[in-house]
């Protein structure tokens, strides 16, 4: 055991050798450059399409063609699953795979929604128009209920069709079973329809089909109260829009906040949810926007 004593064997340093410490404050800029900001700081100008360009809410033949192609790819996957299940006599595995696809589709929509809500801008390649549209949706959320069906779904339908067709080709070449086709078809179908589920979550209950209202209450589809929590500033919760089953866990464990901290310290990019919402992007009700 060592004991501490008030004595030391080191020789004393003469007092006149001590020099007082002085702190100097410099007003010159630091020579160390700040990390570059990688986020898109292009200013977005909100436009209420329901008032300024109502035609943009209507479906075009191009929209309908992409939605038809998306549905065809999804139904093709599900049909292959049913045929394979009939041949094998196994039903449990494809049903479980379909359920996993449904659950993961909800998580996928949440991650995507979080990313475009918080990062990038109009000039971001590929996703710029969606980023700007989602910010406009925060100001005029009711406009999504005015979009025609194919107008609302065509972008996701195009992505689903372009993703599912090659995946199904690989499954066919590799002898995919009923479960794999069920997973792909269900996950892709839920992702494609998530914008319709999202629109229903903004619709007045009196205007919803009875079956949709029942599915919302049962938690099968994202409910109106659950999604309403996302539309409170700073728009940083309840991102998932299929069933919303992941929202509570993601918010409780602060998964997105942890991801934002990592991105900030690694790349120097701040998410939009850390800043106060600009006045021009704050929510307006339908009544307030009427001329």
In words, what does this structure look like?
The protein has 291 residues and is mainly α. It contains eleven helices and no strands. The protein has helices spanning 49-52, 61-88, 92-118, 128-139, 149-173, 178-200, 210-218, 224-228, 247-252, 255-267, 286-289. Helix 2 packs antiparallel against helix 6 and helix 5 packs antiparallel against helix 6. The longest helix has 28 residues, at 61-88. The termini are far apart.
Our measurement of the CA-to-CA distance between the termini, rounded to an integer number of angstroms, reads: 86 Å
Secondary-structure content class: mainly alpha
Percent of residues in beta strands: under 5%
Radius of gyration: 27 Å
Coarse morphology: globular
Number of extended strands: 0
Number of helices: 11
SSE order: HHHHHHHHHHH
How helical, in percent, are the residues?
A: 40-55%
Low-confidence stretches: 1-18, 23-42
- Specify the biggest β-sheet: none
Task: Write down the overall mean pLDDT.
Answer: 84
What tags apply to this protein structure?
mainly alpha; 54% helix; disordered N terminus
Could you give the topology of this structure?
Blueprint: H1 49-52, H2 61-88, H3 92-118, H4 128-139, H5 149-173, H6 178-200, H7 210-218, H8 224-228, H9 247-252, H10 255-267, H11 286-289
Write a compact overview of the structure shown:
By secondary structure, the chain is mostly helical. It has helices at residues 49-52, 61-88, 92-118, 128-139, 149-173, 178-200, 210-218, 224-228, 247-252, 255-267, 286-289.
């Amino acid at each position: 055991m060592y004991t501490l004593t008030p004595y030391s064997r080191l020789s004393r340093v003469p007092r006149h050798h001590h020099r007082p410490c002085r702190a100097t404050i410099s007003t010159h800029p630091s020579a160390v450059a700040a990390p570059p900001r990688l986020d898109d700081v292009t200013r977005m100008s909100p436009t209420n399409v329901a008032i300024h360009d109502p035609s943009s809410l209507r479906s075009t033949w191009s929209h309908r063609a992409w939605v038809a192609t998306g549905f065809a790819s999804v139904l093709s996957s599900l049909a292959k699953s049913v045929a394979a299940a009939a041949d094998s006599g196994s039903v449990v595995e494809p049903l479980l795979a379909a359920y996993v696809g449904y659950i993961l589709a909800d998580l996928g929509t949440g991650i995507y929604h979080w990313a475009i809500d918080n990062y990038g801008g109009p000039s971001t390649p590929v996703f710029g128009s969606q980023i700007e549209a989602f910010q406009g949706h925060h100001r005029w959320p009711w406009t999504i209920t005015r979009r025609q069906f194919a107008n609302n779904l065509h972008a996701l339908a195009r992505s689903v069709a372009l993703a599912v067709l090659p995946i199904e080709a690989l499954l066919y070449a590799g002898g995919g079973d009923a479960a794999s086709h069920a997973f792909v078809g269900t996950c892709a179908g839920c992702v494609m329809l998530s914008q319709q589920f999202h629109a229903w979550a903004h619709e007045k209950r009196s205007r919803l089909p009875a079956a949709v209202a029942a599915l919302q209450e049962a938690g099968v589809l994202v409910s109106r109260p659950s999604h309403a929590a996302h539309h409170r500033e700073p728009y940083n919760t309840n991102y998932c829009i299929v069933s919303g089953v992941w929202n509570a866990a993601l918010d409780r464990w602060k998964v997105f906040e942890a991801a934002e901290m990592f991105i900030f310290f690694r790349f120097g990019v701040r998410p939009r949810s850390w800043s106060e919402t600009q006045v021009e992007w704050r929510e307006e009700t339908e009544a307030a926007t009427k001329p």
